[in-house]
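Q: Entry one of two.
A:
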Amino acid sequence: MHSTLVRAQNVFGFFTTVAFCTAALVALSVALFPQEPSAKVDLRNVQLTDSLISVKGRPHYYSPKKEEYAHIKFDLDADFTSLFNWNTKQLFVWITATYPASASTPESPPSQSIIWDTIINSETQKNPLNPLAYFSKPAKVPQKSAKTRKSSPKPKDATEVQPGIIQLKNSKPKYQITDISGKLSARSNVTLEVGWNVQPWVGALSWTLTDGQRWGRWKGLRGGRSISFDMPEIKVKGVNSDAVKGSGKPERVAEASPILK
């Protein structure tokens, strides 16, 4: 007869085999769910700053190098609901500003800088299963007064809380961007592009499929690219000598809605 240790090893080996096969089937099953994401991104405003007196205009507080930073506002209307299924843990969405390389290096690939990103959790990720909750007493919820119940907002419909819907108007960017050359003014053919990454519970990550691409029942992102525009040029503005703090160099700022092509 087999010993207890051998039997435990057989049971554990059978368990891991079943768990691996189940995980593989779950990972492959997502290919059966159709995906048709769509997004529309539009430029609102671009502000360029070349601050000669603030830390924001320098790569490091101790560096004498000066750089130009772009602050890009945008509108975003996206529908990523088709990317969520029973194996979706969370969705990572971002917007990049893409522009050609500098004139000194025309053979270089286009530069890309992320100006905004967000993480959208699935319903199961928002309310994860907690096994310890079955062994603990539920916390007492304090009763609300009549005045508080009247002022509290009504619960949203299921369509409003459905993950994957993004609607932003005149949104500020999360990140100011700059270029490796330190110059961004008068850059032409700049576009805003939407990208996404699906992080599943089990399986491989899936990345952006652009418009026109197709993989089985998965279609590429419809839209997701703005009209090309040009960065404004920085012009010198006169400032008070007290604001310059004896540096002798004025702060240069450009703020304009670039010419759309």
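Q: Entry two of two.
A:
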Amino acid sequence: MSGPRWPLRIQASIWRSLTNIGFGLHSLPSPRPPEYDSVKSFSTGTYASSAPGALLNLYFYLPKDFDAKSRKYPVVVNFHGGGFTIGAATDDCRWAGAVLNDTSAMFIGVEYRLAPEYPFPICVEDGCEAVLHLAANCEEYGIDPERIALTGFSAGANLAFTVPLMLHDHFKTGRVDRNIISELPSYHIVSIISFYPVTDFRKSRASKRASSRRPEKNLPSILTNLFDASYMPDPTNVASPFASPSASSDDMLQQALPSEHIGLYCCEWDMLHEEGSAFALRMEELGKKVEYEMIPEAVHGFDKAPNPMGVDPKAGRFYHKACAILSRAFDTKSTRVSAVM
């Protein structure tokens, strides 16, 4: 039986405050990342939420030529990291800047609800709600629903895979009302970009640390223990494909994920490197076109260091590579696998 949750809430609150300071420092070096252009809120529960009635914020970063009346734009829907426990939708502002500079897309950061207040599967459900809300309101937002990409970092990189897996399941099993489905426009997830994802909760932290090339470079146990206890209070959920995409069946992976334009980047000195590379290989064996790279001599979250003097130059290089995948996906009509079943 799990213990009381209030100590986790206190710890999470402290770490959230520290994280806010860290990302403030992260935003200081030149070139400065862009500010978001607007925030839109919507209420959960329309589609799939087990904890309905919350207002979720979506942070919009818009191209310089944005004009929703004259054209529709591809969209990058991004999920921030933080162990499903800390972090904010604006944490990936430098990634947003790369997307705006290198692609024709708008960028939307999803402020999903966090554990321990909202444990698994609410983060995933919030991601599903966000995608469906954006598709349903594509005319208002200036979005081309035929060109949606999902991206994320760490926990958010997990959501970039688990959100389409859950969407596929909910449509297939009738969890989404057919009347709602009939009102949705056709929409397609054409690309997934995943930076240093957690893909397998079935493996213990001890085994992940043991497999790491540089165990001393990993996140401290005080932090990862908080993440795991907050997000996954019921250990039976670790085998759910909506927690561990590696636990998905071959058929689910084949049907729910795009056939190409998948970018997966792992960090050499990260405890998640082994499971991420194994997941990339499995997708390739299923016939999907995956662009996998190991970022050399990089720690988990290498691109988010709270260093006011500068940003790791590897971040810009790998952001540029990922944006090239996005651009190809947005320009290629033949790879659009429908997300609506």
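A: Comment on entry two: Strands lie at 38-43, 55-61, 73-79, 106-111, 143-153, 189-195, 262-267, 290-295. The mean pLDDT is 93.
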